[in-house]
Amino acid sequence: MTADLARKSRVRATIVAALIALVAIPAGIAGPVAAAPGSSSPVDKYVALGDSVAAGQGGGGYLDACLRSPAGYPALLDAQPKTNLLRNAACTGATITDVTANQLAQVNRGTTLVTVTVGANGVDLQRLYASCASGQTPVECAAALNDAATYLNSGQVPAQLGALITDIEGRSPNATIVVTGYPVPFAPGISAVADNVNQLVELLNTQLGLTALTSGPSVLWASVEFGEHRIGGALPPAYLGTNPSDPVTFLHPTPDGYVVYRDAVIAALG
Fold first, then answer.
1. How many CB atoms lie within 10 A of CB 180?
2. pLDDT surpasses 80 at 211
3. Does the residue 4 lie in any domain?
4. How far is CA 68 from CA 54, 88, 99, in A?
5. 256 contacts 237 by C-beta, under 8 angstroms
6. Is residue 34 part of a domain?
7. Is residue 27 part of a domain?
8. Cis omega (within 30 of 0) on the bond before 237?
């Protein structure tokens, strides 16, 4: 009996000593705690909103009349491990008000990521280039320039985009919203028309970016730059369609261009 009591006392002493040693380990020195089985960062539930660029026009393999493409940046984001594209609601020709009226309903409380690419259709760059590039229609060119400048100087872009962002936040308060810009399409100095188009895109991007950056911490800005892969740049191929007679591809990103868009969104998300 005495030997048994002694053995039990030694066991208890060992346990107490171990507990004391465990409590005495300073915070931060203990080894890493194993993650719970199956735990991982959540998958973003993603909805894409916007115009032809958000749809993927220029990428080919179109799925519907909205010219949504499997080469578009929403589909490329969907291929990322932590992104699940629930719906690409974007459609060619969409304006900011079109997105609000016809696409916003796809966003709900379960949405955790929304991308927005919209605004260029108010400027109508293709009309501007078609009217001005040939030099044959100076009256139409002047009208196109005037209409684009009037639109950008009217304050419609920040007002309408700001309202759209507010609506998205109301429908999905937990979502991160990424607003993307548009690449400046032409290398500088190609022509007066190309320089005019570049200036309008830069002004549009400024308005989109300032609106995004002043809309709160859940709204991010993704600037998109094609660098020397612009039309006329030093590093062919261009990442934009170069044929003015093909309205589907002209001034729209190629599949390589949409990879740049995807990477810009990923960079904005950090």
1. 27
2. yes
3. no
4. 8, 8, 15
5. yes
6. no
7. no
8. yes
In a domain, 92, yes or no: yes
Which structure tokens are listed for 118? 């919209």
Q: Does 15 score more than 70 pLDDT?
A: no
238 contacts 230 by C-beta, under 8 angstroms: yes
**Residue 241, token pair as written in the block:** 């369609």
Instruction: Specify which residues 116 forms β-bridges with.
Output: 49, 179
- What's the mean pLDDT in 53-76? 99
Closest CA to 59 of 269, 263, 239: 239
pTM value is: 0.84
Q: How large is the average pLDDT for residues 55-69?
A: 98
**Confidence label for 31 from pLDDT (cuts 50, 70 and 90):** very low
Sign of torsion over alpha carbons 159, 161, 164, 169: negative
Cβ atoms < 10 Å from Cβ of 41? 7
Question: How high is the pLDDT of residue 4?
Answer: 47
- Which of 150, 87, 96, 84 lies closest to 120, judged by CA? 96
Residue 250 is given by DSSP the state B
Calpha distance 111→86 (Å, rounded): 9
Adjacent-strand bridge partners of 88: 48
DSSP 79: T
